[in-house]
Amino acid sequence: MTDWHPDTQAIHGDAGARRTVDSVAPPIYYSSTFRAGSADEFASMAGDTRHPGFYTRYGNPTHEHVAEVVAGLEGTETAMVTASGMGAISTAVLALLKAGDHCIAQTRHYMATAKLFGEMLPRFNVEVTIVEQTDLAAIEAAIKPNTRLIYVETPANPTMVLTDLAGVAALAKQHSKSTDDDKRIITLADNTFAGPFNTRPAALGIDVVLHSATKSLGGHSDITAGVICTTKALADHFVWETSLTLGSTLSPMDAWLLLRGIRTLPLRMERINSNALALAAWLETQPEVAKVHYPMLPSHAQHELALKQMSGGGPVVAVEINGGYEQTSKFVAALKLASQAVSLGGVETLAVHTAAMWGGSMNDAQMVEAGIAPNFVRCSVGLENIEDLKKDFGQALKAK
Ligand SMILES: *Cc1c(COP(=O)(O)O)cnc(C)c1O
Asked: Active-site positions?
């Protein structure tokens, strides 16, 4: 094509090099749009639900790669990726609700999720009842004739209280007057804290499983991403249209990094589960520690439920220090391996003084209600050597 002007050559000069090869590592389809071979093909691409090669907001082959892997891990028919966990949560929730509907959410949620239910949905005339998640009878009592969604998050951020997933799924089925997707009660679970290695909500009857893939799925603290795992019917007829309308589109590069991260999820989670449980059990024996919240500890108030629906406790260990705000701040600041940073599920250990983190956005009463005492520390345990972690936490406890 050497007869082309350089202006054209710069844009079309690679036409002879276009071909598909079967690479072992998946390619990154770094393209916002995709060619059709004919007018007919173009029309069928445009009309095809979730076509992976039409326009990236509608779908992208790299999205499809990672979504298929996560759907397999969660045991759902299909999955869709979004640009963040909140993108997944807001897209799924808005896809399934209309004005006049009622939904049920928990007292303890990830903060932005709490805002979605507490502030945003009421603006669109969706009725929300907030219930104590540990009380299945309270969830049942909240169900009304117009209940459309039950939204759960387990273990909940940051207190590590659990919701009975099988119990909630059974309630939704029992109180649905129809089996039609547009009439029945749909259950959604944020599975970010446990992850598919430890809990598979779909196997317990939950309809939609949500992830902040920014956390354990990605696992390297380098991307933000979200995943919605559900049935083909719910994805095709509800979630996809909302997704392309709201536009929480994951970058193909980040989809690829997510897939790369997920390759080692089982190995990372094995180490994280054992490190977190060992650190939690050790912290419980320290005189400077008042209480440790971790589902796999026999001292957890819902340990039996944990054993029923979790095969491991996941990365988050919540610790109450003996002392007040100042001493807790000193403890966190004295940690050398554990960084003071939000997020969780990465290869590195993190610790946050939750009262300091949320002090800016909550008043004292709200913090008490959210279960965040001034001596509360949320740790995300990483892959470091466990003896080094104990050494680090031990010296920081002595320094407080
Ligand atoms: C981080 C997190 C979210 C939000 O995810 P982003 O990727 O930050 O948008 C939602 N739920 C839980 C439980 C989380 O930890």
From this structure: 57, 110, 190, 215
